[in-house]
């Protein structure tokens, strides 16, 4: 049966029932009519439901994030949980789904002669309305009116906004044909391929130029552009990292990262959080006062969590995690 015939006898009432079954406004005490009216009203003016945020990048520069308001975020989160999480992804997609981890992504590329890292330029901004509808909400699964409405609720000005709870999962679906094709092509050549959002990694024993050419050709056909400035070819004689994890012989956190983190934790415990932040002249935390100190401790916990996710049995950082949690409890006790 051809896909266009699948919903041949689907009526407007069927579409309405399907939309209600998705529970996109779950938790709201609304009538069915009000839910449907709200979904269409929001979808017709999504630009009114976003705020623009500027997030500093680690390597310099600013990342523009379009963050949905509470109403649209609720809808998009329910689209993610009630619809998108049930759709099949390529095993090469190493991010934004249950069970995915940066450690597992990096571990695939351990002990290889060559590690090639490629990046897609303006990844989310290049994913268009039609791409989203074709790959995430197409007529195989949804009547056209329903698919169009869901696509409208997930897009902003005909592209995929980076700040939406549903965008990452949608991006994996959009990239599924690329992932499957590249995986097959690479397997024939004993090359390991994985993709973590817009970061693609290839490892094995191969000529980097051939892989780059193949990737560029497929991305161009899809409407994407390879970010040449972020292309890296790493051999065994250099430090090979994948998503911030060293993979030369085994997965490990870079020594410099561990050393700096240990030092920050030591100084916080010895001299106090406020004094340590002051010695760093870190205005981002200093200007917030006590709230900044709590925020700094939370950032340390995040970094410790990263180390332990890569090396779960690290006793020093396990003890450090408990120490930082104790410091946090002291702040919470003062606040109460």
From TrEMBL:
One MF term in the entry's GO annotations: metal ion binding
Enzyme Commission number(s) from the entry: 2.7.7.49
Gene Ontology terms: biological process: defense response to virus
Domain of life: Bacteria
Keywords: Antiviral defense, Magnesium, Metal-binding, Nucleotidyltransferase, RNA-directed DNA polymerase, Transferase
SUPFAM superfamilies: DNA/RNA polymerases (SSF56672)
Catalytic activity as recorded in UniProt: DNA(n) + a 2'-deoxyribonucleoside 5'-triphosphate = DNA(n+1) + diphosphate
Reverse transcriptase domain sequence ranges: 36-247
The keyword Metal-binding belongs to this UniProt entry's keyword annotation: yes
Family: Belongs to the bacterial reverse transcriptase family.
Name this protein carries in UniProt: RNA-directed DNA polymerase
Source organism (scientific name): Hungatella effluvii
């Amino acid at each position: 049966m051809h896909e266009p015939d699948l919903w041949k006898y689907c009526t407007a009432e069927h579409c309405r029932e399907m939309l209600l079954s998705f529970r996109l406004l779950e938790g709201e005490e609304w009538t069915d009519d009000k839910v449907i009216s709200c979904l269409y009203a929001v979808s017709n003016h999504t630009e009114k439901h976003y705020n623009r945020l500027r997030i500093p990048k680690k390597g310099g520069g600013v990342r523009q994030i379009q963050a949905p308001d509470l109403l649209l975020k609720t809808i998009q989160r329910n689209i993610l949980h009630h619809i998108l999480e049930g759709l099949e992804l390529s095993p090469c997609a190493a991010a934004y789904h249950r069970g995915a981890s940066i450690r597992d992504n990096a571990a695939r590329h351990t002990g290889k002669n060559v590690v090639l890292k490629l990046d897609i330029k303006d990844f989310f901004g290049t994913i268009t309305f039609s791409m989203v509808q074709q790959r995430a909400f197409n007529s195989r699964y949804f009547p056209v009116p329903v698919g169009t409405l869901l696509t409208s609720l997930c897009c902003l000005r005909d592209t995929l906004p980076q700040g939406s709870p549903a965008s990452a999962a949608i991006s994996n679906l959009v990239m599924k044909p690329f992932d499957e094709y590249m995986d097959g092509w690479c397997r024939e050549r004993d090359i390991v391929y994985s993709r973590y959002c817009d970061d693609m990694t290839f490892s094995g024993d191969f000529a980097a130029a051939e892989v780059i050419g193949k990737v560029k050709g497929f991305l161009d056909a899809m409407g994407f552009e390879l970010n040449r400035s972020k292309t890296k070819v790493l051999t065994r004689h250099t430090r090979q990292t994948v998503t911030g994890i060293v993979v030369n012989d085994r997965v490990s956190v870079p020594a410099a990262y561990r050393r700096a983190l240990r030092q920050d934790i030591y100084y916080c415990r010895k001299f106090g959080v406020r004094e340590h932040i002051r010695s760093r002249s870190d205005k981002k935390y200093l200007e917030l006062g006590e709230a900044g100190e709590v925020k700094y401790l939370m950032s340390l916990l995040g970094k410790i969590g990263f180390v332990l996710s890569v090396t779960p049995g690290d006793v020093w950082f396990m003890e450090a995690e408990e120490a930082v949690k104790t410091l946090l409890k002291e702040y919470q006790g003062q606040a109460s």
